[in-house]
Design brief:
The chain is mainly beta and 142 residues long. The chain starts with a helix and ends with a strand. The protein contains one helix and eight strands. Helix content is 12%, strand content 41%. The protein has an eight-stranded antiparallel β-barrel. The chain has a single domain, classed as NlpE, N-terminal domain (Lipocalin). β1 and β2 form a beta hairpin. This is NlpE-like protein.
């Protein structure tokens, strides 16, 4: 009985690891305007379920002209939907001020059954966020 239970446990663990979607990694999006303004979004999803986000903008006529904003917290995945959460006591300080608590992003990648030549970049498409400029933002996996 112990052998059977051990075998089933091992098979289950292989199945679980085999279905990993590879959500963890670095995601980036840089936008340049015709006036040489820069908007840069960087998101890192760590294997341990934590994330770090950095937003940088350099706008010639902006007040202030350069802005850095940071956020961090935890992420979980269910199917292709990634949910972000931040703990007010642990994840917020003078540097980390962005609140990702209600943020959700969809993981988009080319379906392995799609044998066409079209190129679909792996990305996170934000579908919900209380951060106004994060709604409908796509960040691409590096």
């Amino acid at each position: 009985m112990k052998l059977l239970l051990t075998t089933l446990l091992i098979l289950f663990s292989f199945t679980t690891f085999g279905q990993s979607k590879g959500f963890a990694g670095d995601y980036n999006r840089t936008l340049n305007t015709t006036e040489n303004d820069i908007l840069d979004y960087k998101l890192t999803l760590n294997q341990d379920g934590t994330f770090v986000f950095h937003y940088y903008s350099k706008i010639k006529n902006g007040i202030p002209p350069e802005v850095n904003k940071y956020g961090k917290g935890k992420w979980t995945a269910k199917d292709n939907l990634i949910t972000f959460s931040s703990n007010k006591q642990e994840d917020f300080d003078e540097k980390y001020t962005l609140d990702f608590n209600t943020s959700k992003a969809r993981f988009v990648t080319k379906n392995p059954r799609d044998k066409s030549d079209r190129i679909i970049k792996t990305k996170l498409a934000f579908v919900e966020s209380e951060i106004p400029w994060m709604q409908r933002m796509d960040v691409f996996k590096i």
